[in-house]
Recover the amino acids of this structure.
């Protein structure tokens, strides 16, 4: 591990950090999915009581 | 007195029917629970313990008559974004009768010291035996620090291996898996359905399994093991069942090592393009899962500190998938029973079940598709039709009863009689088991002249989920009949493209 060039290690470190951060997209994605479900339920309740 | 006795019998039957119906809600709740856990992956992932790490990786490629694909596969592996002096490819040629040996030997000459041809003169025993032959040879010296098991036809995106090895920097991790993405070059309706299924089952559901702390299965075409893990497993994979990947995954975790799913390591794979080929492949998987369920009967629902396979949540997720067809049939029987008993709760129970199912389906699909938006866009028709057009109509009926039974007929100046509504309700209640029969019919008609049109039509109507349920149901039947388990190789033609 330590024999790898420092630039490569740094690049991989950045990649790990980037991937870790990208996982936070899951939260708004889940919110969007829940919003779609909520919209369908609202249509049901409002238009077909 | 007699009337009272009949009332009691009726009430007991109604309760039994209700229990049957409620079995149908368990898989729905399990799916909802699993997908609601996915956002937690933002906080509960392994990146904090991942480090830049480039172990010496031996890639073992089992090959039987892979002459059409193996050369290109080796070239692509040699172009991986990984230090070349830390990569060796061992092609285990399982007594191929085509030009596989010639192709591999030519590649060994082209990449001296990096590509190795291991020939088994007596083959045909299955993938696990082939792998073990290669693993034994690789373990004979101490060069290998990590072993990547893959299929001959898959394509690793250049940075995939690097993204997998970084997790092995943590000694607690025994194995890492990647996202197997459907990558057939000549896509058809079925490969697109498989693409949608893989999105839901991998970047979505496997993130949830990471959060729950237990992985159900390392992908057969992309599993990276540390040497220590491989040695702890006895230096071989299981050869006694059709589910060697799942058994390897379970044994790794039972020995206290973690299995990590890496969603950013993408591996493209060729998938079956016909219902018949898919049926054979998935039947093998389903029967393998039956043996896994039985083999590990002492771990289910028994939480321990050493691993998470025994947790209630993992058990519910595992069994809800495995028993989904049984739950669907029981649920329909229960609904029919309530209908014929003229139970006042039949309608409420039906609507509750299907409204939950519809909400869960919408949530799962909308969320799941965002985890791989590019592939989802290419498969948008299959995303929309994933549960089946008829099933969507049933959901619509449950969600908006007046719309289907009153308002739409009223548009044409018609009214539906109570008798017709009863027959319609009957059809709706029994559709789920019939959707599995429709999937079976899709397989039967596929080879006929009309099959080119009828087979896809039936799958779009019945739903891809019904097809998978029908295959799982077939595995129940085969197990009950103690039918012979054999390893059918899925025919690959090198259709996969990056």
């Amino acid at each position: 591990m330590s024999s790898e060039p420092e630039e490569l290690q740094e690049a991989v470190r950045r990649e790990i950090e980037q991937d870790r951060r990208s996982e936070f997209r899951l939260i708004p994605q889940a919110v969007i999915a829940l919003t779609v479900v909520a919209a369908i339920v609202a249509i049901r309740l409002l238009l077909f009581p | 007195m007699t009337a009272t006795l009949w009332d009691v019998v009726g009430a007991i039957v109604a309760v039994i029917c209700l229990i049957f119906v409620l079995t149908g809600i368990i898989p729905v709740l399990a799916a909802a629970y699993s997908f609601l856990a996915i956002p937690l992956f933002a906080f509960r992932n392994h990146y904090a313990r991942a480090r830049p790490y480039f172990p010496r990786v031996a890639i073992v490629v089992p090959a039987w008559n892979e002459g059409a694909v193996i050369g290109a596969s080796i070239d692509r592996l040699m172009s991986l974004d990984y230090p070349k002096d830390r990569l060796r490819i061992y092609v285990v040629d399982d007594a191929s009768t085509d030009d596989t040996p010639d192709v591999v030997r030519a590649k060994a000459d082209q990449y001296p010291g990096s590509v190795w041809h291991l020939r088994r003169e007596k083959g045909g025993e299955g993938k696990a035996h082939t792998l073990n032959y290669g693993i034994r040879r690789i373990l004979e010296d101490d060069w290998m620090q990590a072993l990547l098991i893959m299929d001959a036809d898959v394509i690793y995106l250049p940075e995939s291996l690097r993204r997998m090895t970084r997790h092995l920097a943590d000694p607690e991790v025994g194995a890492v898996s990647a996202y197997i993405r459907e990558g057939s070059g000549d896509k058809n309706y079925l490969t697109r359905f498989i693409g949608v299924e893989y999105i839901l089952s991998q970047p979505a559901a496997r993130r949830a399994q990471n959060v729950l702390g237990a992985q159900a299965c390392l992908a057969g075409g992309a599993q990276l093991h540390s040497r220590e893990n491989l040695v702890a497993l006895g230096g071989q994979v299981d050869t006694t069942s059709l589910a060697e990947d799942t058994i390897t995954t379970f044994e790794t975790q039972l020995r206290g090592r973690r299995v990590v799913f890496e969603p950013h390591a993408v591996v493209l794979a060729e998938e079956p393009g016909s219902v018949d080929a898919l049926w054979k492949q998935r039947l093998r998987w389903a029967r393998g899962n039956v043996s896994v369920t039985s083999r590990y009967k002492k771990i289910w629902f028994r939480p321990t500190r050493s691993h998470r396979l025994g947790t209630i949540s993992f058990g519910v997720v595992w069994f809800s998938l495995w028993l989904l067809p049984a739950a669907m049939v029981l649920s329909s029987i229960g609904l029919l029973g309530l209908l014929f008993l003229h139970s006042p709760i039949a309608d409420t129970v039906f609507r509750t079940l299907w409204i939950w199912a519809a909400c869960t389906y919408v949530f799962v699909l909308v969320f799941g598709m965002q985890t791989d938006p590019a592939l989802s866009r290419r498969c948008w028709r299959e995303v929309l039709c994933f549960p089946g057009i008829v099933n969507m109509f049933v959901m619509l009926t449950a969600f908006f009863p007046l719309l289907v039974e009153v308002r739409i007929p009223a548009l044409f100046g018609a009214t539906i009689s109570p008798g017709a509504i009863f027959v319609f309700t009957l059809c709706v209640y029994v559709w789920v088991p019939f959707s599995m029969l429709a999937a079976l019919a899709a397989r039967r008609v596929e080879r006929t002249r009309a099959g080119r049109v009828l087979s896809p039509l039936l799958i779009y109507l019945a739903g891809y989920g019904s097809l998978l349920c029908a295959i799982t149901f077939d595995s129940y039947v085969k197990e009950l009949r103690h039918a012979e388990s054999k390893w059918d190789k899925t025919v690959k033609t090198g259709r996969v493209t990056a």
Summary: Chain A has a mean pLDDT of 90.
